[in-house]
Amino acid sequence: MICASDLIGCRVETDSGKRLGRVHDLRARAFDGGWELMGLVVGRRGIVARLIGDSGPDPLVRGDVIPWGAVAQLQDGLVIVREGTTPVAA
Amino acid sequence: MGGDRMDLVYRVLDDQLVDVDGRRCGRVDDLEFEGDLGEPPRVSAILSGSGVWHRRMPRRLRAIGARLFGSGVVGRDVIRVPWTQVEDISSVIQLKSKARELGLAQGDDRDATFVAKLPRS
Amino acid sequence: MKKIFQVALGIIAAIGGFVDIGELVFNTQAGAVYRYQLLWAVPVGVIGIVVFAEMTGRVATVSGRPVFDVVRMRMGLNVGLVTLVASLLINLVTLAAEVGGAAIVLQLLFDVNVSTLILVAVVGLVLIVYFVPFGGIERIFGYLGCALLVYVAAAVHLRPDWHQVAQGLVPSWHSSALYAYFVVGVIGAALIPYEVYFYSSGAIEDRWTLRDLSLNRANSVLGFTLGGILSVALIVVAGEVFFAPKVQPGYLGTTALGAQHAYGEAGLLLALLGMLFAVGGAAVECAFSGAYTLAQFAGWEWGKYRRPREAPRFTLAWLIFFALAFVIVETGVDPVLLTEYAVILSVVALPLTYLPVLLVARDRTFMGERANGLLANTFGWLYFAILLVVSLAAIPLMLVTDGGAG
Predict the structure, then answer these.
(1) How far apart are CA C137 and CA C294, in angstroms?
(2) Residue B116, Cβ neighbours under 10 Å: how many?
């Protein structure tokens, strides 16, 4: 069982230690009457996007997203993703 | 809410909770997910109360945060509201039940007994 | 016709409510030391508050979210907490300054010992706030605060050199720390955050709807602008009365002397009455602003439109603020000194409160079609830059000039 506070602000790195940014938001997808976590919004663009905001009607914030499926391990303050994962602009 | 996707920090976290009677009863201070790494976690509950604030503070300040705001004792300094209680997400998080039934706004209920003693309250 | 009447009343209330102890202290001193050379700082401050208030009023009306709700939601818990603590401290200092100022004015009116008058001021304010509905409070203090318009009359009556006055309205620069300090002070006094917290929560208290949006916009623009004219008058009168004899108005009573110089005892009485209600009204706004801030950050029920027992922690919050201010003022600290701290500290914290409002006002997710257009965005970002510069300069200038003592 995880909480949003466990993920927000975490550094994101690959197995080999390559840094991909920090988690600034949690992208969710509607599923079966509820919401499921589909990705982590990361990166420098994430915080700028979060502050400046999109002026569009979208509830989504511009930023790079790491799909949840790529997450290999959760540690305290650190999210480790599979080698070769790159954030997808979405 | 557009489409079937939503950014939870931007749209849900830190939002105002409002109960079925329109009463303001706290904020979304944290979100609880269930499920494991094998499958996408599902949002299972809203956590409301200052007891979870220390978890969101910078690492070095967490000890002080827990002392000042509470360490997260469910029922005392944090209340767990099942996600099924959420009616709508707009500029506030609209809940389906009364605050009292959900265990929210306890501080206001407690202080109301004192304030009720003031004239014309 | 009824709408025009309503707007007129709203404007009157805004004029009387615009001036508080910050303007009374800083503008009078600015006029005494630099005569008309700081006049240009007033419109800069007034335009700033009009821009800021318009945005917060629009955000509150369209999204139902007052300022601190926006701060917490947009900036998150940590930045929100820092802003909260800063705002509460500044609010408390400002409230103490206003209460202290009210007590001084009462002492000038009735020769009673000041300790008792501080109690009278606090108890009087608490009773009015507790028993009178929101709209009534705004009106009482706003209308009676208009007695300060005697300064506008005095400014004309004293026949200043209008050519010099006009020159003062054009921005000029002096490479003196003291001059810069007063620029910061005059601009800062117009932009004290509690006014904006109060204004945006007031929009929800008064139940503004989308239809009222342009009406209330007119209200605030005209009201604050005319209030700015009052601010200008304070500088002009001080410039006429105190500059030549090099009087440093370190006391509130000295400010009142400006009106007496023009109109004798009648002028003095009007000035004191106006000061009492302008400062008293500001004290009320301050106490509420603190309570709004705390309640909105935490998510508690809030609002004067709720019965006290329906918003218990909010009610206790503003009562406790008054009590704390009472204690501070009773220690005997100089209200003029408190005022200077309040204004300077407010200026430092301004960018922190201003930015989230600007960000939400531009955000179409929350504002729909009412999000900032080109004009609002241009002025919005321009003022953010101005506020950043002013906020960074404020404390160094205060230290270098020893609080305006030169």
Answers:
(1) 21
(2) 13
Closest CA to C340 of C189, C202, C209: C189
Give the residue from B6, B9, B16, B100 with the most C CB atoms within 10 Å of its CB, the best one to mutate.
B16
Nearest to B41 by CA among A72, A78, A38: A38
Q: Using an 8 Å Cβ cutoff, are C209 and C61 in contact?
A: yes
How far apart CA C353 and CA C68 sit, in angstroms, is 8
Range in A62-66, B3-7, B27-31, C229-233 the model is least confident about: A62-66
pLDDT in tens, B9-38: 988 999 999 999 999 999 999 999 998 667
Q: What SS3 state is found at B108?
A: helix
The answer, yes or no, to whether residue B2 has pLDDT greater than 80, is no
Residues 6+ apart with CB under 8 A from C207: C305
Contact C17, C274 (CB under 8 A): no
Does the domain made of C2-400 have the CATH classification 1.20.1740.10? yes
Alpha carbons C309 and C127: distance in angstroms, whole number: 16
Calpha distance B54→C68 (Å, rounded): 20
What total of structural domains would you count in chain A?
A: 1
C298 contacts B26? CB cut-off 8 A: yes
Write out pLDDT tens, residues C281-291.
999 999 999 99
Domain ranges of chain C: 2-400
Yes or no, beta carbons of A55 and C359 under 8 Å apart: no
B1, pLDDT greater than 50: no
Question: Which of A55, A58, A60 to mutate against chain C (most C CBs within 10 Å)?
Answer: A55
We report the CATH number of the domain holding residue A32 as 2.30.30.240
The CA-based angle A76-A77-A80, given to 5 degrees, is 85
Whole-structure pTM value: 0.91
Domain of residue A79, residue span: 4-89
Chain C closest CA to A50's CA: distance in Å? 8
Helix H segments across B4-121? 8-11, 53-56, 62-69, 99-102, 106-115
Contacts of B among chains (3+ CB pairs under 8 A): A, C
10-residue mean pLDDT profile of chain A (90 residues): values are: 92 90 91 91 62 50 82 91 80
The helix-helix angle for C252-298 and C312-330 (nearest 10°) equals: 150
In chain B, the domains with their CATH numbers are 8-115 (2.30.30.240)
The mean pLDDT of C8-34, rounded to a whole number, is 85
